[in-house]
Sequence to fold (413 residues):
Amino acid sequence: MHRYIKLDTVCFIFVLIFSFNACAGSSIKETRVWPSPEYTRITIESSTLLNNSYTTLANPERIVIDLKGEALSDELQNLSSKVLSNDTSIKSIRTGQFKPDVSRIVIDLIGPSKVKVFSLPPIEPYGHRLVIDVYPNNFDPLANLLKQLDGNNKPPEAVPDSTVKPLPKKLLVPQREAIIIAIDPGHGGEDPGAIGAKGTKEKIIVLQIAQKLKALLDKDPDMKAILIRSGDYFVPLGTRVNKARAAKADLFISIHADAFRKKNVSGSSVFALSERGASSAFAKYLANKENAADLIGGVSIDDKEPALARTLLDLSQSATINDSLKLGNHVLKEIKKVNNLHKKYVEQAGFAVLKALDTPSILVETAFISNPGEEKNLRSAAYQNKLANSIYLGIKSYLKTKPSIAFYTEEDF
Fold:
C-alpha cells in the first residue's frame, strides 16, 4: 500500500513539474534585440504579462532580470545569439534557470549605463512586451548629431583673384552657415510602420529614401542634412522633435509610406500641421495612425514629451504653419512629376511629430505601400532616387522664396 502511495506521489510531482514547464515555456513568444548608435533595446514578447524584477550591479556592469513563473524556454535561451558584435551598449546576454519557477537573464554591459525596464500592453501586431532599454552614460546625443554635420559640404577655399576688384564692404552681407535640414524616416525598430502585400516594411523603405535624400542635400554646398533615425531602431516622437531642435534645423522633413484597407488607393501626399483639426477625414485617419507610433514602438511613461500633449498657444505657430504649407506646395509640385497625387493640395492634421517644432515642417507620404503597383515601385532603388530628388528639388525651390533663411554670398549682389 505504501509503495503505491509513494508511486502516486512521484507521478503527481512529475506531472506538476511537467505542467509547470509546459505552461511557463509557452508564455514567451519572441525575443528581439534592437541596437542603435544611441541605445540598445531588448524586447521580450509574451502571451501573458511577465512577472519580473530587476537590479543593476557594478564591477562588472550588468543587469539581472528575474522572470517569475517562467521556465527557461528555447526562445529565451536564443536571446544571447541576437547580440551583435558591434553593439555599443551590450557585451553579452546570459540566461539560466535560477530557481524552479524563476528564469534569470543577465545582461553584461559595456560600461556604466542608464537602464529602463517597463512593460507594454498588447497592441497589434504584438502581445505583452517587457522592454529593457540600455543607454550608455558616455553617449552624447548632441555630439552624435554634430558628427553628421561635420565635414558635410565644406567647399574648397577660394583662391583670391587679383584681377577682380572686391565689392565695397558696405555691400557685403555676412555669409550665413549652410541651411540644416532634418530628415526624419518614420517608424523603425519595434514599429515596422505599414507592411505591403509582399512583406515590404515602411520603416525600411523610408530609411532608404531618407538616406538618398541626405546624399543629395550633402552634395549641395548650401545645405547640410541630418538623419533623425540612421538605422533600424525606434525613436520616440518627442525625441525626434528634440533632435531637430538640438541640431538647430531650419527645415524638418518626415518621410513615410501610406497604407489603406483598399488596395486600389494610390498617390503621394504632403501634410502640414493644423491648429484647427484635420483638413479631411483621411488626413485625420492618417494622423491618428502615425501618432500611434509611440504605442507600437514602445515608450516608457517617463519618456512622454509634454510639449506634444499640450495645446498650441504660441502665436508664432501660425506663421510656422504657413511656411510649412508653402514648403509642402513646392515639394508637392515636384513629386507629381514622379507619381500621381492622392490630393492636389497640402493636407493638414494634428501630427504629433510636427507639433512642437518652430521651423517649417512637413510629412511626406511618398506612396501607398498597400497598393501593389506602388509597393513594387517603392522597392526599386531607381524609384526611390526619383522620390528623393523630387523632395530635394522642392526644398531648393522653396528656399529661393525665403530670403530670411537663404544662403547668400558676394555673387548674389
Q: What stands out?
A: The chain has two domains: 27-136, 141-154+170-412. The longest strand covers residues 90-99. Residues 27-136 form a domain with the Immunoglobulin-like fold (CATH 2.60.40.3500).
